[in-house]
Amino acid sequence: MKALTGFFDRMIQRYLPDAFLFAVILTFVVFVAGILFTDSGPVQMVDHWGSGFWDLLAFAMQMSLVVITGYILASAPVIRRALGRLSTLAKTPVQAIMLVTFVALVACLINYGFGLVVGALFAIHVAKRVPSVDYRLLIASAYSGMLVWHGGFSASIPLLLATPGHFLEDTIGTIPVTETLFSPFNIFIVLFLVVTLPFFNRYLMKGSDPLGNTDASLWKEEEEEIHTGVQPSTPAERLENSQTVSLLIGIMGLAYIFYHFAMNGFDLNINIVNFIFLFLGILFHRTPKRFLDTVMKGVKNAAGIIVQFPFYAGIMGMMVASGLSQQISEWFLSFSTEFTYPLFAFLSAGLVNFFVPSGGGQWAVQGPIMIPAAMEIGVSTAKTAMAVAWGDAWTNMIQPFWALPVLAIAGLKVRDIMGFCVMILFYSFIPITLALLFL
């Protein structure tokens, strides 16, 4: 284990570029592949790239708000104190790794944006309690929670299929979450990873580098604002420091949240999750000034998403318009049987996820191909959709896009954690494939 983990760590430290350069390199790879394997020429590929570059602005805004509102909520004094108290459960490096992994997994099952932020912030709390822990492995453990997001309550593909009006409704109708998120095979994968991944990450300590330890003094907890008793002197300052303003708008937000669930049932879509995080953040920070100060700090964590998402939209534009994504999916389909189809749907989704690192965006690309094929072969459409969902989640471990907010909070580079993430990728392959093939 030490030799294998060390090998991947050395290779990635040496050869993996920054996440932005990774997106640029993927752009070139898809550009050349489109010329070689499709009917598109250089001019057409450039057109596909530029035409798709801004197609995901709305989704990019949603994803940015996931990170920002998650940071706002996780940074609220009451949440910070709760994380601090929870971190006292870790007394040794082994306990630190296992505790951070478990908390990140549970948080990402609730919502992936919240889980990413809470996992990173909690890891910093734990690092201060246990300074001898390998900090790089600790942050990789926090990021490993992202592995289960598409099997949890913020999973974009199953939630989309359960929503009337989705783009495949004429083909398959709506699929309730009882057949996707709460299916036996999905529950098996989630429980298997939640129970065993903390132990596997603990096992990775055998291959960790002592130089990966961090000095806890580098991660000073942000102190809550100390008020000296000086009263605001102008009407504007009084409004900025008014708890009443935050309370009133917060109550209005909560009223809409209750109304939404009363009218729509358990409809936990991206917009309502962001809405909940935003207004709980307003209430927990108590005054507009404290809230806005936290917003300014949280925005920097979304910088990588804001800059890189258009590049991935351009990649997606080339993949779709040139037919590359269809060729990849159809190649896997060409040797699939009723038994192996879910596995190859999973693997094809894992490959496409490198170029389209968005669950919803990837489903828009693969759904119209995978679902008709599943119906023709005789495979459950619900299981096919979840196979694509797990493929998307699986290769997130080595696709640096979603690690950006975690790394921004932790102060690390993508190459610092990716060696461990490769090992997590290999391990998680086992329960996912067993479930897709035999359950």
From TrEMBL:
The keyword Transmembrane helix applies. Keywords: Membrane, Transmembrane, Transmembrane helix. The keyword Chloroplast does not apply. Pfam families: SCFA_trans (PF02667). The chain crosses the membrane at residues 20-41, 53-74, 94-125, 137-161, 181-200, 245-262, 268-284, 305-324, 339-356, 417-438. InterPro entries: SCFA_transpt_AtoE. It comes from the Bacteria. This is Short-chain fatty acid transporter. It comes from Virgibacillus sediminis.
